[in-house]
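Appendix B, example 12.
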Amino acid sequence: MRPRILGAIGFVAGVTLLASCGTASTSTTGSTTTASSSTTSAPPAQTYPLTGMPIVPGGPSSTRPALMVKIDNSSAAWPQSGIDKADIVYEEMVEGGLTRYMAVFQSQDATTVGPIRSIRGTDVALAAQTTGLIAYSGGIPNFISAVRATGVVDVGANAAGNAYYRDPNRPEPHNLYSSTTALYSAAGTNGVAPHPLFSFGSASTSVPSNVSSKAASITVNISGATVDTWTYNPSAQDWTKQINGISVTDASGAPISATNLIFEFVPYANTGYVDPAGNPVPEADMVGSGSAYFAFGGSYAPGTWSKSSTSAAPLYQYGNGSPLKLRPGRTWVTFAPIGAAFKVSS
């Protein structure tokens, strides 16, 4: 377990709170024992390592470093740009019960990415397991130091300012943008090739029938301020997202969507920092083990997650102990607090 980054000073990044929105719950989750089998075997060489999708002739190389970008998810940031090109999106709880995204790009490029915001303590483990490059607006110095110590290439706004710009049509701080091309250019030849973080099957891979149930929609109450609902789209074979009952899209107009959903239930702790409004800054403890749910193809199943160290890739198993294999495509991982209500409609 990584020592927590504690402090007693506030930080300067602004926070916009969503209106409190609670819903009735039907079930809760808690910690479980550590899983033992790896679920991160490499996909065939002709596929991209983070999605399992076929390599596109003339497209990005499968050995191009992964690029992590911290993206705002307050309502003032909607619609965001570039999420529809991300290979993986991690959603974590921050102060005030809001969430932020860590979008990971590798197999596709986005001409516009943002709004880009500051990093949190939770991002240390994400940076360590993903490797590659990381883009962000700033952050508490201890968080920045810990992220840099993982060995990732810092292409944040302070390190690579020329790669960023402000959109004058949006209010600060929700208007800092870049592009994947500019951020990769800022890194030069630095960065290492990515390694798989999930195991992939084929486009017809299904949740095992002996552990699965049908799901038309899935709702998780991350906090009183953020309730995520994912609705399955059979024609596209993906899940589209609502936040507090509002359908969310990328700036391109495309619904925010994912092929695979992973819900990890993790403990959050107070870092000792507060935002300007006095809200504690939380940090997820991602090393250890706990309960999880997995969903793709219109079905879901319970399971477990485990992570043996900050830099280790997470391991996922179904409740019967069999390893998780996902469908090729975008994977969305939500770090929900232990005890968060999880509701499925079939």
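DSSP finds three helices and 21 strands in the chain. The two ends are 38 Å apart (CA to CA).
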